[in-house]
Amino acid sequence: MLIRHGRFAPLLTLPIVIALLALLAYPLIVTLGQAFWVDGGLSLAVVRETLSTAGFWQVLSNTVIFTVGSTLISMLLGFSFAYALEFVEGTRRFFASVLIIPLAMMPVVSALTFGMMLDPALGVVNAVADLAAWSGSGWHTETPTALATVMMVDVWQWTPFCFAIIHAGFRSLPADVSEAARIDGATARQELFSISLPMMGSVLLVAFVFRFMEAFKAFDVIYVMTQGGPGRASETLVIRAYKEAFLFFKPETAASIGVLLLVTTLIAARPIGRALTKST
User: Fold this and answer.
1) Rounded Cα distance, 252 and 244, in Å
2) Is residue 5 pLDDT above 70, yes or no?
3) Which of 154, 181, 183, 262 has the fewest CB within 10 Å, making it most exposed?
């Protein structure tokens, strides 16, 4: 009876749902209370104070630049690698395996490795630049280049993620459709923009949203390499929330930033839910 009425599957997921709610409900309630409950009543005083904190808008700007830039570059590179691999025969698996190696590395390890390579005094990058008679840079230790440097490391770390999803999307396309297009005289460009991309819309959206959320909450690479510095040159909202909570001992300010991060993540997650619903 339960199976016939479609109630058995929801019952199977009920224990997991209850466990997740138990683990998430209490931290969420505490966070909302610290952000909006002041002197025994609801208030936006903490939020207003957070928005007026020195350097907040620069941190917000850094977050937008880092998130959008890292996401778009990762998507572009991942798509380019996946599309180029479609023209490779015989060694496709080898190149695919090589391209996803950075994804297997821990972000902290990647950040430490790049930090040593980009060290202004002892790094191999500046050593090579000196051999080429080109003045090296402080990279992550100088204000103009700090944000771009940590963004570059984040792109290196997560481009394989975009590549893996998009490559799987290309591999799942029906071969008969592409073959029919070629027989009809379609060029590679026409096949890509008129057939492949429209059929991969949901795949690209899934990759984009997951990559966006990962870049938005990036912490490891930034904190290990720069800790948000120099000054606030590479500080994002996640780094700011960490500092407010554990360095400045202002949990209410960290909670208000956390609410902002949560709302943004939920808004970004809606398209992927709609895409997955349409594909089922």
Assistant:
1) 9
2) no
3) 183
What are the CA-CA distances from residue 83 to residues 20, 88, 199 (Å)?
38, 10, 14
Q: Could you write out the DSSP letters of every residue in 5-27?
A: TT-HHHHHHHHHHHHHHHHHHHH
Question: Residue 42 corresponds to which tokens in the numbers above?
Answer: 């609801």
Give the Cα separation of 79 and 17 in Å (integer). Answer: 35
- Residue of 54, 20, 48 lying closest to 35 (CA atoms): 48
User: In Å, how far from its chain's centre is CA 162?
Assistant: 10
What percent of the chain stands above pLDDT 70? 94
**What does pLDDT average to over the chain?**
86
Query: pLDDT tens for residues 108-129?
Result: 999 999 999 998 888 888 888 8
Counts for the chain of helices (H) and strands (E), in that order: 15, 2
Residues 55, 70: Cα–Cα separation, whole Å: 22
Alpha-carbon gap, residue 63 to 238, rounded angstroms: 9
Contacts of 192 (CB under 8 A, 6+ apart): 83
The percent of the chain in helix, strand and coil, each rounded to the nearest 5, is 75, 0, 25
Do residues 163 and 86 lie in contact, with contact meaning Cβ atoms separated by under 8 Å? Answer: no
> What single-letter amino acid sits at 143?
T
* Rounded Cα gap, residues 13 and 89, in angstroms: 43
Nearest to 158 by CA among 107, 225, 219: 107
b/e string for 171-202 if b means 16 or more Cβ within 10 A?
eeeeeeebeebeeeeeeeeebeeebbeebbeb
Is residue 219 very low, low, confident or very high in pLDDT (cuts 50, 70, 90)? very high
